[in-house]
Amino acid sequence: MARRTFLKGAGVALMLPRLESLGQVEEQAPRRLLTIVNHLSFYQPKLIPKTDGTIQEPPPLLANLSDHFEHLRMYSGLNNPAVQNGFGHTPCVGILSGYFNKLHRKNRISIDQAVADQLGDETRFRSLVFQAGENLNFSQISWDKHGLPVHQLDSPRKIFNLLFQVNENENVQQQILAEDRSILDAVLSQAKSMEMRLNATDRAKMDEYLSSVRDAEKTVRKQAHWSGRPKPVVDYEIDAFDRKSVDDYVATLMDLAVLALETDSTRAVTVQIPFWEGFKEPELTGNYHDLSHHGQKKEKIEKLMMLEHGILKRISAALTTMKERKVGNTSLFNQTTTLLTASMGSANAHNFDDLPALVFDARMKTPGYWRRKDVPMSNLYLGLLQQFGAEQDHFGESNGTFDLLA
Amino acid sequence: MRGSWITVLLVGTLCGSARAEPALETFFAKHCVECHGPEKNKGKVRLDLGLDALFADADLPETVVSLLEAGEMPPEDAAQPQDAARAQAVALLEQRILANRPANPIKRLTRSEYSNTLKDLFGVEFDFTDLLPPDQVEHGFDKFGESQLMSPHQMVAYLRTARFVAERLLPDEKPETRTWEFDVRHFHGSKNFATGGGGDFRDGDDYVLTGFRPYRSNLHFSIDPTRHEQFVVPAFGIYRLEVKAHSEKSKEGEVIGINLGDGRHPTNFRNIRRIPMPHGSKGFTTELTLKAGDQLAFTFDSARVPGRSLAKKPHQGPAMRFSHVKLTGPLAEQWPSAAMKAILPRPKMKPAELVDHIAMLLTQRPLQTEDRKAFVAIARSQETSGAAMTATARSMLITLLTSPHFIYKSESPELTGVELAHRLSYFLWNSVPDAQLLEAGRSGELADDSSAQVERMLADAKVDRFVDDFTRQWLQRDKVDDFGPDVRVYKHVRRMTVDSMGREGRELFAHLLKNDLSMEHFIDSEFVMVNDRLARFYKLPPVKGDAFVPVQLPEESERGGLIAQAGFLKLTSTDFATSPIHRGSWILKNLYNEKIDPPADVVINEPDIRGAITIREAILKHQQEESCARCHSKIDPLGFALEYYDPVGRKRSEYRHVKELPAEQEETVFTKKIEFTTAPIEATMTLPDGREVRDLPTLKAALMADKERLFKGIIGKLISYALGRDTTLADRPYIDSAYRASEARNYSLRAAIEAIVAHPEFRRK
């Protein structure tokens, strides 16, 4: 457990390179989003309060989060009506977009990416998505505005390196980026002179090329900008990681998520809690996936509970850490909205409705719990998006919105 | 009325365009505007705004023509125009459609064209396809300029891919070839991991696989026997893979799958090769293109059972035993390589000379003077900075591979000889023309008489790329394996059978093309193309081996033709249930080449018919809604006639509905139990023209009676693939002429393709 020594002290903020290009001190602390999805859901009989309103006597699973009840609005019974049922875990890909069609390869934009689009482009990474196992065909939950999959990172080591490791090929990298820029300049000018010889229809096509090159140039420029700047330095170590324990994996991913936000490497982090792994606690045998499909067997549910308690404790600890860390003038928690939800209502029943969703936000006035049977999850997503400043009045299957700060 | 384009032209000429508009507008005002005007605006279609407004919509004029022609509009209960008035309206519309040749927007290379082009230009066997994002298309073919998207993401991918290609084609030093050997000490399987499942085990000097689910049973290997860190391919290149493996307890050929991906989290496996292992085989040798970072794993794809724990019940059936794996690579070709010599023919080249040389090499078209300035500037600055010639050539190659000069196909209004050679080559080879074809293009031979070149090209092995790419998209072969089959319901339909189903359509097309056979075989045929597994699945006399051969059907068999293929029947079903709507609309879209889409303003909630007693009732509701009925009266009979074939394409006599029992009721936890109920099939329906179809044979007879429309539909598909754009009514003369040429040769597929290429329209943008 020694490896989980967190960032020591409050020094991290001082080590941050601020983005000089902004050229100004921000008036207000930026908003950030942390999205956590538990693929296999939670055992709801031990999670969901009996009555609406202020959470008085939390069921045992929920009690793990009691330190944060004053900033929690919790909902249950939500639905994703456009997520088609069937075929194992595959519909889980639609949790954050509210959409899954068995015959379509593409999806719709997911809420974390919609918020990331809203948050802008000022950080090293637009967003970061962590998950277990790369490209498992049912754990892709982040989708961009074209409905294409967003790259999800699975290895804590890779994530750490991406965020904090010094790039040893930096010179080569800089050279390549410089050459990329001159190549993009050259193809742009060829496209421009070629465009003059084209008819109107083809010019429209060539305009797509031109604007794509210009955008690609921005990407390359941004890469060059960040590649020329040192990454933040953190006092955090990842041991050789064997992925055998869900518990350890969640803890590490949560650590990395908090670090990514705290160092302002990105303002939108999505964490998908792994489900393939077993765990190494001596009293537990079997693996998470099997236990979640417990068939109402008492001894399996008991083991599942141990695991879910572990996961929620880690999440609670991460929220506590965020309260302790200061970024600028205020705590990281004060700047961050955290959404915790699940791809399934119950892994045992293998249903994709009856979903729980927990929103943590320091700004809310009336915390509590509300059952929202069959209300589209997209309503909550729309509320989230609006709270991040989006002006749209529709997201996915929404037929209304949630006031999450009420 | 159909196909009377000659009359159309005559009428058109006689009427003259000056009179067209008032006559049409009067017709619309009299018969259409009541519903499609400012007041009712049914289907959001308005016909009161004048012809320019009508023709501003890309598809509407055609829809109006086809509805008028078919007598579907005005609707039955409304006053009908006189036949002559209707014919005149159709003629006037068609005249204007014909005058508006469809725009054919500039096209970029698809990723398979890109990969094949590099292979053929530089004589390399690398497969570059996966370096570029897939070409997503909503309808038609990925070759359509109109639907090809260009995005910043695509742009960055072009740049990265170009750099990757250039670094491999023009390396600074000869890559070192190494050999790795692995035996049972290095082998690992899924059993070692928390994923459980298992189904694979170590036995003496062998590692044994028993199940077909890759995430339950696979073999991967480490370099260090004491550690479980998977072997990682160190560098890009071609590798030779030699595997010693054999099957046991099997009387037939088996199949090994080679996959890329992390063997410990194998649901992300990407199958890159299937190796048929004939009965008695002791192993295989193959060559693979691998990238740095790739990880290899093997699966037993023809296994009979899904992987499962063997603790309680040992495995009885066929198994695959692996004893030795040897990997050698990257394989060195001669040094300097052919590609290096082609790109840099002389050790010293001036900047402008180098730019012109590479540009010409890539596209056979010189760069325009004003286009090349920026490129020459790059080469010059490299030269000034003292870069090595190879490095300069590399930069130039990256630049040109990223430039519109290479990425976009050049097509003048009347194609030049070189452009014509490219169009033909991207049609029949899915790649660049070879020297002989270019010469024929340049000399004008190709434009005068393409037949010799077409014959030569169809005899070349590269034609397989066309057959594969065209049938993949036309028949959606690559989607056959998208669903299930659920192993609990379809116990004997295995991975490799489904794989074979996906290949059948391609094999039929290839056979008809090669042997100059009639397109009638697409509708019905006295033979089918099958391999060992498919012959067994269709209960035909046994066939040996994985290769497809024609097999004569017994008298009583209903098989033969595309719609009797299990691949089509499975493609149009979900994991448990058939979908008459999918089947019917597939036939209309892909055989009749009709443009039907779900109405834009209707939310499609396809009834979940799993467990429903009355599928027919659920679906027939469509026909009660006026807006749905227009298409569904055509779609539903075609689909229902196929209801005697289940979701995997087997004959059935009744519906078997599947119900998943709630998990609470089960004994075991990992498999949900299912319950079957049966219901009788009612397939008989009437096509809009009054013909009754009740089963597969009557449906095939109905299609055969429509063969002119079907073959024109298929020819339309071929034309749109070749030209990279959708066909419209304006293509009728073109389609008709190819059809007549084919008809004269007993509806030969080959004759149709020859006629498509020979037509003047093929030489226009």
Q: How would you sum up the major sheet of chain B?
A: 6 strands, antiparallel
Beta content of chain B: 5-15%
Which bin fits the share of residues in helices of chain B? Answer: 40-55%
Instruction: Strand order, main sheet of chain A: write it out.
Output: 5-6-1-9-10-2-11
Name the pair of protein chains with the most residues at their interface, and give those residue counts.
A-B, 63 and 59 residues
What pattern of helices and strands is seen along the backbone of chain A?
Answer: HEHEEEHEHHHHEHHEEHEEEH
Write structural notes for this entry.
The complex is a heterodimer of chains A (406) and B (765). The two termini of chain A are 39 Å apart. Chain A has a seven-stranded mixed sheet, sandwiched between helices. In chain A, strands 3-4 form a two-stranded parallel sheet. A two-stranded antiparallel sheet of chain A has the order 7-8. Chain A is globular. Chain A is α/β, with parallel strands linked by helices. Chain A contains eleven helices and eleven strands. In chain A, a hairpin with a 2-residue loop joins strand 7 and strand 8 (330-331). The longest helix of chain A has 28 residues, at 200-227. Helices cover 35% and strands 12% of the residues of chain A. By secondary structure, chain B is α+β, with helices and mostly antiparallel strands. Helix content of chain B is 40%, strand content 13%. Chain B has 28 helices and 17 strands. In chain B, strands 1, 3, 4, 6, 9 and 11 form a six-stranded antiparallel sheet that branches. In chain B, strands 8-7-10 form a three-stranded antiparallel sheet, with no helix packed on it. Chain B has a two-stranded antiparallel ribbon with strand order 2-5. Chain B starts with a helix and ends in a 7-residue tail after the last helix. The chains are: A alpha/beta (406), B alpha+beta (765).
